[in-house]
Amino acid sequence: MLASSFSRNRGKLKKLLGIRARLALLALILVAPLMLERARSLEEARNKQIALAYEDFSRFAQHSAEGQREVISAVETVVKWAAHVQASKEVTGRNCDSLRANLAIDLLRIRNLMIVGKEGRVECATRNALVGLELGNWAFFNQARQTRDLVFSDFMLARTDHEPIMIGAYPVAAIDATSDTVIVASVNLSWMSKILNDVGGRPGMLAVLVDSMGTVLAAPSDQAGMIGQPLDRVPLVSAIAAKVTSSEKEAESFSFVGPDHSRRTISFARIPGTQSRLIVSIDEARLGADINEEIRTAYLQLGFVCLFVLLGALIAAETLIIRPINTMVAIAQRFGQGEWSVRAPRRRLPAEFVPLARAFDTMAARLAERERDLIATNDRLTVMASIDMLSGLANRRGFQTRLDFEWMKAQQHNSELSLLMIDVDHFKLFNDTYGHPEGDVCLSRLGETLAGLAAETLGFAGRYGGEEFCLLLPNTSATCALEIGEKVRAAVQGLALPHATSNHQAVTVSVGVASTTPVDTLRPSDLVEAADASLYVAKRSGRNSVAGHGLALSAGTGEPAALAN
Description:
six-stranded mixed beta sheet, six-stranded antiparallel beta sheet, alpha+beta, single chain
């Protein structure tokens, strides 16, 4: 059972993996890797683009740190210079004017320079609007007095124009311990906005600067409305605002699903010397949107190319292989049916099949020739099987075949059929006297004589067996049959073949004649039996004689009966 099941499955597999499927699979094997390689290269390009975005963020953080160090260094130089100047004299209205005059030039990124007195009130500033401003409650200001060193605030927004700034405080007491004056400088962070524009201007990327409380201090120009807003109100990063502001790490990255259901990656880094953080939100889907579209296009192209290749392979297989094979199979089947004249249509076959078609044609020609020879041989064998080689007449088999045919023909046309049974008189004595070779010569001469008479009377002569012959006479009445029987007897005696043991001193024959009109109740064997009975009568009559019987239906019984002439 397992063997039969395996055989069935194997047959189904062979049918499934036919030549069409194999060619289609080969075409896919040739084409698919090329298209997949293109898709893979686009995948790599997308991954490289995402990796490049992270590298840009790293460079962005590094650039910010370097800018921060430059700012700190510049501010430190200016405030220490101002502290030395302040330590050498008291601040008066004239001295304040002198300070403004000396700082009228471009101070790099320093926005304002202020001198704050003991009470924490601005006593002198490069901008008159800042004089009288209270700074005593600021943590960085008090820390600078306590540490007697330069201290910077977090990034913050200026009260006058809401621009992002950072403030540095340096006490004069670091130079003159008796002084309560503090030099304060505010730094412009416009350089930070430029960096944010460079990074945040890319599709799928958002860059902001927030202070320690999570307030947005700087953003790209197209997102300027975020400045001054808490981080938890920024749509794309609101979900992770608390995690970013509460993190103690200098830098960190993590992924989350945003309100727009897009997966985003957040990376942030602390600005050295402050509690402020640079935050970059990366939407990988938008960042690689162009490449993703190219990848989708590549896969669509792969599908279409594979489809066209499959169709092309199937059409090519059908045209170049399957159809020629079916043509050759049909020709072979016609060969098997004996149509040897069929020839392969070479003009409609691919060049690769022409040698096969030529071989088919050659084989068909040879088989046709062999079949003709075989038919001729069979005909000769049939004739030989139906001919008596000694007498040259039909043998008993051939005679029986002809009798059946003539019987059926006479029955169809309601015509008479006569039969002569001929026996050589005292033939055993002839053989004993002259020998068998002479007996064969005698039979051969009788066969020639009967053949001549058969041709003359339109009859059919045969050797029934031994020294007994027969002559079948279609469309011949009993009377005519008796006359022909007499011709046979006379012709044989006229041969004058010597027979010393015969009363006539020559070879003679006895002839039994039977005639009938075939009907359904009679058989061909009935005619033979009637002729044999007539032959028996002729022999009983002294031989060298002719006796005749006719077949008729017995009245009332429907059985055949012999009627003597």
